[in-house]
């Protein structure tokens, strides 16, 4: 306590004893005004010396854990700290965790803005099982939303597989007329997988991103608020658009037609808190989007199928004919994503596109041209078999062998053995 505070405290004691302010002033050799100030001043609380908390050296570590997972169990954190040398109690740690969680929640609700053309957010909406074209199937919606303008692309699908995800990206880029600098995803398996202690970009998405020139980003685990713009828009799609159709049989093509019309209408309405429409902000944003590559990128899955002796390939239990010159060979096939088609290739050479039947029907679909061509193949094979079974005569052996040499496909079929056309 300094001398001034000591005099102040003593003056207050003298007043309590009934001594007048004039006499107190004479005692200290000061004016009566100074004494009145001393007597009106409230006693100051004594400052306690600050003691360093045992948790002080571990606060940054705990904060990092909570940023990665705000719902992390406090007792598990306590056990990890004890292993690292923490000597404090659990109560002080629990109070700090509660304070940090409150701060994280406060920051999570603060809306952050991105630059035009910089970021898009991608997510799936799951609608569960719905009646689609008379069949009960799972229904999903792909959503890509531009961060600056809130302009969105929505596409209804029946699966969330990697080819479907990438094909939806391509349609979204065409819809926007360009590609953003980065795209934000949650921990969907088609975007990220956890390997050796770190998150790694899915190989298909990585190649696709390199092709289109954007950077895939991952939002923090269990922190959907980091892509809150698309999350809020998803709720709007579910509660505003889909409620009009959820009580009736659905058709994918009709749904996509209606959602495109719905998006056109809401884009003309002001966005809450911005006083501008999505369309107006998009007109400003689209000039900052990257150009879409001129060369197309095939995102369809690749399947190798063997051509049977009946000149058919089997896909989803159904058999489809191909030209008989490919019998015994392995062809490269790419199933369509939004249409039931199968593109067939021999190496890089396109053979044909097949319209697929419903899977599991065990049907055999053969074109008339393929049927006639296969019959000719088997007839030629029977003639070749008779050729090799007949004793060779000098008058015709060389000519017959020359025919076989000029027809290597038929000769190969004879060697592999075939059965008579049924």
What does this structure look like?
The chain has 422 residues and is α+β, with helices and mostly antiparallel strands. The chain folds into five domains: 3-40, no CATH class; 56-108; 119-288, 2-Layer Sandwich (Nucleotidyltransferase, domain 5); 303-368, no CATH class; 371-416. 41% of the residues lie in helices and 19% in strands. The protein has 14 helices and 14 strands. A five-stranded mixed β-sheet has the order 3-2-1-4-7, with helices on both faces. Strands 8-11-12-13 form a four-stranded antiparallel β-sheet, with no helix packed on it. Residues 413-422 have low confidence and may be disordered.
Query: Total strand count, please?
Result: 14
Name of the top-level CATH class of the largest domain: Alpha Beta
As an assembly, this protein is single chain
CATH homology superfamily of the largest domain = Ribonuclease H-like superfamily/Ribonuclease H
Number of domains: 5
Relative helix content: 40-55%
Based on secondary structure, the structural category is: alpha+beta
The biggest sheet, with number of strands, parallel, antiparallel or mixed sense and barrel status, is: 5 strands, mixed
Shape: elongated
Q: Rg from C-alpha positions?
A: 39 Å
Mean pLDDT: 84
């Amino acid at each position: 306590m300094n001398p001034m505070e000591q005099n102040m405290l003593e003056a207050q004691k003298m007043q309590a004893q009934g001594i007048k302010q004039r006499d107190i002033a004479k005692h200290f050799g000061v004016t009566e005004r100074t004494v009145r100030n001393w007597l009106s001043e409230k006693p100051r609380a004594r400052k306690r010396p600050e003691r360093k908390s045992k948790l002080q050296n571990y606060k940054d570590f705990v904060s990092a854990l909570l940023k990665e997972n705000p719902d992390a169990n406090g007792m598990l954190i306590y056990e990890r700290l004890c292993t690292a040398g923490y000597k404090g109690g659990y109560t002080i740690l629990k109070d700090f965790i509660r304070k940090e969680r409150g701060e994280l929640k406060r920051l999570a609700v603060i809306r952050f803005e991105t630059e035009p053309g910089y970021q898009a957010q991608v997510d799936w909406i799951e609608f569960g099982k719905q009646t689609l074209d008379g069949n009960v199937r799972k229904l999903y919606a792909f959503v890509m939303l531009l961060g600056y303008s809130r302009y969105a692309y929505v596409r209804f699908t029946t699966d969330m597989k990697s080819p479907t995800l990438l094909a939806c990206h391509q349609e979204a880029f065409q819809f926007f007329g360009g590609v953003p600098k980065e795209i934000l995803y949650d921990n969907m398996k088609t975007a990220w997988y956890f390997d050796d202690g770190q998150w790694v970009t899915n190989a298909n998405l990585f190649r696709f991103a390199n092709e289109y020139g954007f950077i895939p980003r991952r939002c923090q685990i269990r922190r959907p608020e980091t892509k809150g713009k698309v999350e809020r828009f998803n709720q709007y799609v579910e509660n505003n658009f889909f409620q009009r159709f959820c009580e009736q049989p659905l058709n994918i093509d009709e749904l996509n037609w209606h959602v495109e019309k719905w998006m056109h209408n809401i884009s003309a309405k002001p966005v809450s808190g911005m006083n501008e429409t999505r369309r107006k902000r998009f007109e400003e944003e689209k000039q900052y989007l990257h150009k879409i590559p001129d060369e197309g990128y095939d995102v369809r899955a690749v399947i190798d199928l063997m051509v049977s002796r009946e000149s058919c390939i089997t896909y989803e239990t159904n058999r489809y004919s191909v030209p008989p010159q490919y019998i015994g060979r392995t062809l490269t096939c790419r199933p369509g994503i939004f249409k039931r088609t199968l593109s067939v290739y021999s190496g890089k050479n396109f053979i044909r596109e097949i319209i697929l039947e419903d899977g599991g029907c065990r049907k055999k679909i053969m074109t008339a041209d393929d049927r006639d061509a296969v019959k000719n193949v088997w007839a030629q094979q029977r003639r070749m078999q008779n050729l090799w079974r007949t004793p060779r005569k000098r008058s015709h052996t060389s000519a017959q062998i020359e025919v076989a040499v000029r027809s290597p496909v038929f000769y190969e079929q004879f060697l592999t053995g075939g059965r008579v056309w049924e």
